[in-house]
Amino acid sequence: MANDARHVVVLGIDGLRPDLVTESTMPHLAALASDGTWNRRHTTVFPSETRGALTALATGATAQVNGIAGNQFYIRGTSPDQVFTETTHDWWAADERLAGNLVKAPSISEVLHQAGRPFAVVTSSGPGALPALNWKGQQRGQTGFNVRHPQIGYPHSFAARAHRSLKIPAGGISADGPMTAFRVFEREVWPYDKPAATILWCTEVDSVSHLHGLQSSQLRENMRACDDVIGELRAWRDAQPERDSITLFIVSDHGHVTIGGTVNVADALCQAGFKAAASFNDHATQVLVRPGRAVGLWLKHDDPALLRDIRDFMMEQVWFGGAFSPASEPGSISGTVDGSLALELLGAGGERAPGLFVHLGKTPADDQSDQAGHLDSVFYDPGDNDLRIGGGTHGGLHRGEFTAVLAGYGAGLAQGRVSDAPSSITDIAPTILSLLGIDAPKTMTGRVLGGDALESEKLAYAEILSAGAHKTTFLTGIERQGHFHVSEGGIQ
Q1: Interval 292-335: pLDDT, tens
Q2: Tell me, what is one Gene Ontology molecular-function annotation carried by this entry (predicted)?
């Protein structure tokens, strides 16, 4: 197909599960996907958490390459504390501590800047989303704004103008965030800069999923509000003189599952006799624990015997749902810890990887927490987060949280095409650059989506199993063009 793309706009809906998108819940998105492209096997990265996923989107690479493994992680030899990404201060403090090397791979922001093409990001998300999507964009003179946290914006002249024009309160927008973010783009970004690429990121679907659950009326209301923005975005494109050179993508960064049971893994380890904590500030601590759906474990000192003991304890717990560790040797599917699979299969290896990632499993079918109204009930370690049973969560490898939305419409894209070929959030940046005629850096491990995914192509389904322990960790996925695309993980 002809490619006349000169401008790409990505609208991100944080936490949107693709299987919840229907003609009744999100009619504008359903229509756009029907008229354009819809990827039915689109996934995120591991851990399936927002700031790690947004960094993967921006860099076109997994944590193994870009260094951002989820919302929080530990980096050996730098500090006794974990790295957090919740606020802009967290990002800058970590970057100072790492001598400017927090994000280890160039992003689409940098590539477009080097090509002399403008780039913009407008969010209605938490303060950590903007640096994830446009790390150090302010130094490059690019455009960034957060309507929920309007003190975060650049350049100052643009931010002041947007603040006045949209009448955004100094304390930020608490309602209508997605539409306000779109209006900032429509009125204050596009007329002035006409960016080559723009990312609009909205957090509201994710927030209500966490608070109210996946079958709540609040979730449906926020899905419809985001769908209204999709309708406005498409109408805006159709009204532009440049419409035939504008490409739209609608994406999400992960899905959601339901919290059916909670566990404090650090406390459980301590009760079993291990010295575990959230940091190494106490010199007696043996193992640092990162909470979540994918619990990361870093040892203070290399101790294979201790790690095996921890593995044995974990495997006996009802909440154990799989084990992953750095590859035993390059290219191996097995992790260094017996009974685990290699983190490299998930793009989560590298120097910042923990000694062991323990994936938390599904709640038992006969558990009282697996009650009516709970969609895909799982265990979760909330850490310091105030998330409760019945609410939504993500971070692991359950299909409900690991799959994500990818729909496209406009210049350079097919019409009326549904693709069953696997795709990843890391494919978005190289695809945008390809549409714009700009070479992607070699660090972008994602592939360019397009005509290579033929409908007649036969896809080889595969399963990878661990060995060496009485509980078997599995990954299922698709073998395609020499690469294993993960669809789901857990224990047998």
Answers
A1: 999 999 999 999 999 999 999 999 999 999 999 999 999 999 99
A2: hydrolase activity
Number of folded domains in the chain? 2
Q: The domain spanning residue 339 has which CATH number?
A: 3.30.1360
Kindly state whether residue 133 falls inside one of the protein's structural domains.
yes
CA pair distance 262, 423, nearest whole angstrom: 31
Same domain, 92 and 126: yes
Element holding 247 (H helix, E strand) = strand 246-251
> What is the CB neighbour count within 10 angstroms for residue 78?
12
Q: Tell me how crowded residue 327 is: count the other CB atoms within 10 A of its CB.
A: 20
Q: How far apart are CA 394 and CA 392, in angstroms?
A: 7
Cα separation, 329 vs 252, in Å, equals 34
| pLDDT at 460 (0 to 100) | 87
Angle at 170 between CA 165 and CA 171, to 5 degrees: 130
Considering only CA atoms, give the Rg of the chain.
22
Question: In which residue ranges of the chain is pLDDT below 70?
Answer: 1-2, 365-374, 451-457
Residue type, 157: S
116-133 burial, b at 16+ Cβ within 10 Å, e below that, comes to ebbbbbbbbbbbbbbbbb
**Residue 454, domain member (yes or no):** no
404 within domain boundaries: yes
pLDDT of 415-466, one tens digit each? 999 999 999 999 999 999 999 999 999 999 999 998 554 555 678 899 999 9
Model-level pTM? 0.96
Q: Report whether 41 contacts 420 (CB < 8 A).
A: yes
In a domain, 206, yes or no: yes
Q: Please tell me whether residues 422 and 327 are part of one structural domain.
A: no
* CA atoms within 13 Å, Cβ hemisphere of 8: 29
| Beta strand pairing call for 483-491 and 473-480 | antiparallel
What is residue 360's three-state secondary structure? strand
Of residues 133, 120, 50, the one with CA closest to residue 404: 50
Six-digit token pair at 281?
């500030």
